[in-house]
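Sample entry (76 residues):
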Amino acid sequence: MMIDWSQCPAVESIPGKVSGAWVLKGTRTPVRVLFENLEAGMSIEEVMEQFPVNRKEIDSLMAFVARSLEKSPSYR
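Predicted structure, serialized as tokens:
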């Protein structure tokens, strides 16, 4: 399932900023990097220590992902 990041209020993609990658709003921190580090075993607290993100931003991102995963798949 692909997540439609354009619907997430916590992220933005700006051409020329981090090559247009989806980043947390107001930062240069790619969403992909956050998930890669969490997948590698970092805790949310460790992620916040390593990257310029706060708990509210992480919580908003995770809530969006959780809502996205609850949606029924669409078949084309």
